[in-house]
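Could someone model protoporphyrin IX containing FE with this protein?
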Amino acid sequence: MSCPFDPFEQKRKEAGVLPCDFEGERVPMILRHADVKAATKDWHKYSSDAPRRLSFPTEEDVRSMRQFPLEVDPPDHTESRKLVEPFFARPKLPEVIAKVEALARRLVADALRQDSVELVRDFAVVYQSKALTYMLNVPEEEADVWISWGTHVYRDVDAAGKIERGRQFEAYLNSLFDRALANPGEDFFSYLNQATFQGRPMTRVEALGIANLAFAGGRDTVINAVTGSLGYLGGNPQALEYLREDPKRIVNACEELFRHISSLTHIGRVCPVDTEVMGVSVKPQGKVSLCWSSANYDEAVFPNPHEVHLDRKPNAHMAFGFGLHLCLGAPQARLVLRSLMKALCEQVQRIEILKAEQHFEVEAEYRRAVGYDALLAKLVSLE
Ligand code: HEM
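Reply:
Sure, complex below.
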């Protein structure tokens, strides 16, 4: 039976490319590790200059602004990335590490006190939201609003509610910048209010594009990595024992879980001119997909790719992308998952899964398992 996380296996081996229909457009999905990597380096051919169109599905109906630095090429990419780097590097600061570790310990202890816990909405969403307040340097209470959004900033509502959700989200982001203007501090929003871009003050629309990505880029991706890892530990109790024996193993184990889960299946680029992509012709401004999840299962790079090897090394996975647009939130995602593993090793003997509803991304040419819609579990204490 084929692996539910890797529906691309056959096409990757046979052709290295899968043409797939997305919203009426035939998009070649690049599947092999080497080809995806090469494409990330060639931004003239595979451009990110396509506001609101790089994601699958596109977000043209739910937001008005371009996301920075994701949806731009150099030189704007270089400048906007550099501008926000100090905040995205905060998860490397000892005080931020200590806060996320304490949060993980607290949430695990709370879960242990309950007969059962729904790990998606009542654990992962809460954990991701509160951890993000430390990165953005805003009060933890602000996370209450973010928790109410559910698993995805836009998609966790029905089709009819999506546009309204987008409008509310934009209004909420504006209110954060307004509040920061009235009461400047050391937070992300005050910082962007004072930022300079292209030699002039950054506009509100540009700042909104940065903030939008800080929320949307790290939401379902982190939630799926957390729940995917908890689901894995539930099914493999010996894995928790293995990490507990030597917590230094947590770092490699998390990388392997990021690879195996591959929370972001793929992302788009556009070809500025008529282009032939592995035998598939792409019209000017037509989309191409860089399929991280397929690259992460490429048997040419990862021996036994469908198996989880918590000590896999080397592990050149591309769960966080590669090159120019390499995920800026990777330090935050790593801190969140490592802190959770640490807290579980300290407090939890095993995770008993009571009910699991796997989430599937369903497209014209594939169906891929990513995270869970619901994951009910009982955490059993070490004591
Ligand atoms: C497991 C969690 C995550 C995964 C799998 C993930 C995946 C990715 C990938 C594959 C890219 C590259 C996109 C491209 O090449 O076009 C990316 C970029 C980005 N991600 Fe993440 N991400 C995660 C967490 C986060 C978090 C927590 C944040 C923010 C708090 C974040 C913010 C960003 C930003 C700002 C970029 C754009 C970087 C640039 O364009 O230079 N991500 N992410």
